[in-house]
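In this section we walk through a basic example: taking a raw amino acid sequence and producing a predicted 3D structure, encoded as discrete structure tokens. The instruction is simple. Fold the sequence below.
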Amino acid sequence: MTEAAPTPVDKTALRDAATLLVVRRDAPGGPAVLMGMRGAGAAFMPSKYVFPGGALDAADTAIPLAAPLPADSARRLALDAPAGIGPALAVAAIRELWEETGLILGTPGTWAGEVPADWAGFAATGQLPSAAGLDFVFRAITPPGRPRRFDARFFLVDVEQIASDPDDFSAACDELSHLHWVPMHEARALNLPFITEVVLAEVQARLGSGAPGSIPFFDNRDPRATFARLA
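The resulting token sequence is shown next.
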């Protein structure tokens, strides 16, 4: 009798990550979300339209927030996760938004001590990072077999929380191109990753019905995917 071959072990490192959906609820064509396109040569999701976001940096754990996460988001981020990771993920989301779009999610204030290099441009605007407007709405782990894998937490924030001109992307790096506000009902016509489509549908439903009692969690840590809800 021939034995079944063992399932290959995926040794790709799983990195914590944060993604931010900035939404304009009162846009002329209905609610719109900020998106940009990844480069054709990118190792992860090339040529796909995505929301601003990226991996958690070690330095993110040391950046103080001028205002903390809302209590429900902080509590849900702590479920099935390393202790204290919530504030660091909020910092990562704010940093990635600044780097990839030039938009500022913060509140006026003066930094104490030396400003880290990654935050020099942000600090020069006279703002401190603030997580008060962030709403944790989705969690998804990249399936095995991908060139890069992330344990990604998705946050929703209203454009009114942005402290800068929401149409000024002049301070953005070149990681995302074609940055623009996409009407949500048109977004699925773009070249989107599967999980981006799923998150969009969840957020559209949320905008129409209010905050749900739990947060979707697509858990692909193992070859057999599972779906749960973080209450």
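Looking at the output, two observations stand out. The longest helix spans residues 85-101. The domain at 14-230 is CATH 3.90.79.10 (Nucleoside Triphosphate Pyrophosphohydrolase). In the next section we compare this with other chains.
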